[in-house]
Amino acid sequence: MSNGQAKLFVIAAPSGAGKTTLVLEVVKQRPELRFSISYTTRPRRHNEVDGVDYLFVDVGEFSTLQNDGALLEFAEVFDNHYGTSRTQVEEHLENGHHVVLEIDWQGARQVRESMPECVTIFILPPSRDELVRRLRDRGTDNQDVIDRRLRDAVSDMSHWDEFDYVVINDDLDKAVADLESVLAGHGEQLATDDVVLRSTVAEIVGL
Length: 207
Fold this sequence. Notes:
This protein has about 210 residues and is α/β, with parallel strands linked by helices. It has 8 helices and 9 strands.
């Protein structure tokens, strides 16, 4: 893969859409992809590893990175800060590797402004009912947190039209195949200007 072929893929989704599972599955199948590890100020969960799942920093460290221009994008989500290392992404691309960013729609908007050649993909659940079920089945949040995540998720879904492609994560194997097709430069039926897709998405997000 030459430097000219290296692309930045930006993947966003509402909470509960299954984005992380989907992205990890694709990265596992395509080891040549580079998965950018985000900075975050949120507490590390018991099953997470610093430098693997996230780069865990405190608010002061995050502010320094932000002020130094070291972040390609940054956002505040659920009272915690998240950001992408500009250097990490640029080095992967310069070395000829496709890069996958797993961020939120706010960050995706910033990346588009800095690197308009990026390819943006939005992951949706198959329905709002399924979204609620997934958020409840996590078993890691109390009802207040679940309610807040649901409200934010519904709001996040309204930004789907800002992206180049939409993948609906109903069946994991199919969603992986759909995401793979976009990464391979195909997936025209998943483009946000596709009439059939737009009709399906309208039902999911309640337009």
